[in-house]
Amino acid sequence: MNNIQGILLFPMRDAEARKQFLIACLVMLAAFIIPVLPTFLLMGYTAKVMRQIIDERKNPSMPAWQDIDWSETFVDGVKLYGAQFVLMLPLLLLVVCGMASIFGGLMSMFLLAEEGTRPLGSIGIILLFAGAMFFVLFSLLSLPYSIILSAVAPHVAAKRSFSAGFDFKEWWQVFQKALGQFLLAYALSFVISFAFVLVMQIALMTLILICIVPFVMIPYSAYLMLVTNALYAQAYSAGRDALQAESAA
């Protein structure tokens, strides 16, 4: 993957980039107050950044907020969010089933203790076991599934289409051609997240630093969204180029 440092630093590359990043942080702040809607706008903004890399063959930069079409950007964000949300539903379903099974098992055990009914005890044990299995399955599948879906966001952004997220054959071919690039992009995103969590844990041990945690969360969330999608876009661009070169040969 080329120019990793440039991607990691592009939201704060210069004074103009920092100005646009500050506006992105304000949009992220609004997302903490108004559910979902500002998130769509920021995700649409990241789609614009991804198209810089994929279609315009440029290094990522922070587009001027005053120059973007806000309604178009919002719609782009809805498409991006919607495709990712629908494709993540299988994992969410595992979590919901796991929580429901454990809750049902605990309730059965509670009723057994109250009424002394043996069948309830057997059902409770089965439900608790099933709940544990759902969470084990979630743990085993979440990492590879998330890595595979990293190709969806740049594909939807490039195609400007919600349905493009479900054109599995097309984005899967791109993913295969740049598997190493996508793995690296995911690893870098994980390292950024881990470093932040580590810093926050240290901050939470100190009464003074704990007060700044909410203020750090906002720029961190905006930064992670921008940089992660830019990394995936570069991996997608490499995979698409390799696929086109293979087709032309």
Number of discrete domains: 1
Low-confidence stretches: none
User: What is the string of SSEs from the N terminus onward?
Assistant: HHHHHHHHH
Sheet with the most strands? none
Architecture overview:
The protein is mostly helical. The chain has one domain. It is 80% helix and 0% strand. α2 (15-33) runs antiparallel to α3 (37-54), α2 crosses α9 (213-248) and α4 packs antiparallel against α5 (118-148). The chain is globular and about 65 Å long.
Descriptors for this entry?
249 residues; mainly alpha; 9 helices; 80% helix; 0% strand; globular
Quick structural summary:
The chain is mostly helical.
List the helices and strands and how they pair.
Elements lengths: L3 H6 L5 H19 L3 H18 L15 H46 L2 H31 L3 H8 L8 H10 L1 H26 L8 H36 L1
